[in-house]
Amino acid sequence: MAIAAPVRPASLLRRALAADAAISGAAGALQLAAAGPLSSLLALDAGLLRGSGAFLLLWTGLLVWLLSRQAIGAGQAWAVIGLNLLWAAGSVALWLEGAVAPNALGLAYLLAQAAAVVVFAELQFFGLRRQQRGAV
Questions:
Q1: Tens digit of pLDDT for each residue in 50-74?
Q2: Cα torsion angle, 122, 115, 46, 18, sign
Q3: CA 73 to CA 36: how far, in whole Å?
Q4: Would you give the distance in Å from CA 94 to the centre of its chain?
Q5: Which ranges constitute the DSSP H helices of the chain?
Q6: Which candidate, 59, 74, 92, 136, has a CA 20 to 30 Å from the CA of 14?
Q7: Per the domain annotation, does 2 fall within a domain?
Q8: How many domains does the chain divide into?
Q9: Do 81 and 124 meet the contact criterion of CB atoms below 8 Å apart?
Q10: Structural domain boundaries enclosing 121
């Protein structure tokens, strides 16, 4: 039975950022490459899917750049956390305000991605706290 190595203080933050980058990149590429079919499937505007897909790819680039840094500063981590929370709130607000009228599958897609982004923000928050405490 293998024993897991102790988690370094920055590991949780870096892992949360890496997971955010991987999922955001995949979602962005999917939305950009398949905006038309996704639009029909989810009853979401193809332009909205393309635009958010392009943004997600830029976001992925920012996260990858941040991960390439030797150290991730608290300000940088807080900015990522805040932007993730804004993304999640904005996604839900689009639906609640009637800016989009997705079908059931589209609503599930919208809410699932918003929930995933909140989970990333939460993990990043806990990773930042752990990093600041120097806890193992």
A1: 999 999 999 999 999 999 999 999 9
A2: positive
A3: 39
A4: 17
A5: 11-33, 35-42, 46-68, 74-96, 104-133
A6: 92
A7: no
A8: 1
A9: yes
A10: 11-131
For tokens 């190595």, what's the residue? 5
Tell the residue number behind the tokens 């956390």, with chain if given. 81
Distance CA 85, CA 114 (A): 9
In a domain, residue 108? The reply is yes
Judge contact between 130 and 12, C-beta under 8 A. Answer: yes
Evaluate whether 38 touches 65 at the Cβ level (below 8 Å). Answer: no
Distance between CA atoms of residues 33 and 27, nearest Å: 10
Instruction: Please say whether the beta carbons of 58 and 84 come within 8 A.
Output: no
Closest CA to 80 of 26, 39, 113, 127: 127
Helix 35-42 crosses helix 104-133 at what angle (to 10 degrees)?
A: 110
Q: How confident is the model at residue 9 (pLDDT cuts 50, 70, 90)?
A: very low
